[in-house]
Model the fold of this input.
Amino acid sequence: MPNNYKVAIVGCGGISHMHAGWYVKEPRAILTAIADIDEERVKAYSEQYGVEKQYTDYIEMLETEDIDIVSVCTRPKLHAPVVIEVAKRGVKAILSEKPMAENLGQAREMLETCSQHGVKLAIDHQVRFSAPYAAAKQIIANGQIGELFRIHGICGGGDLKDNATHTVDLMRFIYGDRPVSWVIGQIERIGTPTKYDLHSENFAIGYFKFESNVRGIIESGNDTAPGYHHIYCYGTEGEIELAAPGGPGLRIRNQQSNGAWVTPELPSETDPVQDIIAAIEEDREHRSSGFQGYASLELLMAIYESSRKRQRIHLPLEEMESPLTLMVDDGWV
Done:
């Protein structure tokens, strides 16, 4: 394996600066090329990060340069088509922004294409690498709050696909990415809201059951309880609270603390780029792999489908189009 991985970024909007920061601080990565349809933006971005190769056509970039890792930082509608084309061109790994895709059909094609071409696909649910959530996952696995029975996540001020996708993904992550059996949910949509060119909603709530019988609750929108990726974990012998408004990133109370809230020592943090290199070298899946991205997107789509069908939705979800798109097309919302 090479000591240095040549990296390219497709799309140099705001979110791509986070990706560039990860690559710049990673000694095994070399930020080699950038592509965006806006020539002036490409020039400014290249100057900021010292990127020598500049393109306005990402296909030309991939066919010209020898690239190992590609970050896809385009608008959401382009995530799927760009990932699919990149995967066909000899790269080792792709780190694509969230939401994974516009619908499950696109997400499935992304997974299939990457699998066919031996490409590691990761979706940038980067909060999986935040120390408090990683610690909470270990605390639950160690049985420090007894048997988990409920997880309640809150994503104030955001919609499901752009913001609460992180919250839902974190709820799945801290409980070991266990499968979900069914979902029931409702959305409120006032007017014709959109977010990054996708249909959106003003408020949403979902209730779901993991196969283990643990229950999850997700609320998102502008009128939720306070908090952003604010998650409660309830166990038979204690509780965990993550991202409490005005409080610590993680606190726990259990029998060992005599019921008092305590803040444990947190592990050191990594980031998605460090893990994507490790996934290549160890031939394993990324912590936020495409498979995990698909499962989180499926849960979000099931909330929409429940709102559309007015019933519980059992997984796997059969509808490959976005149920929210179907509702809008039918004039329901």
About this structure: The chain has a mean pLDDT of 96. The first helix runs from residue 16 to 25. DSSP finds ten helices and 16 strands in the chain. Residues 189 and 202 are 5 Å apart (CA to CA).
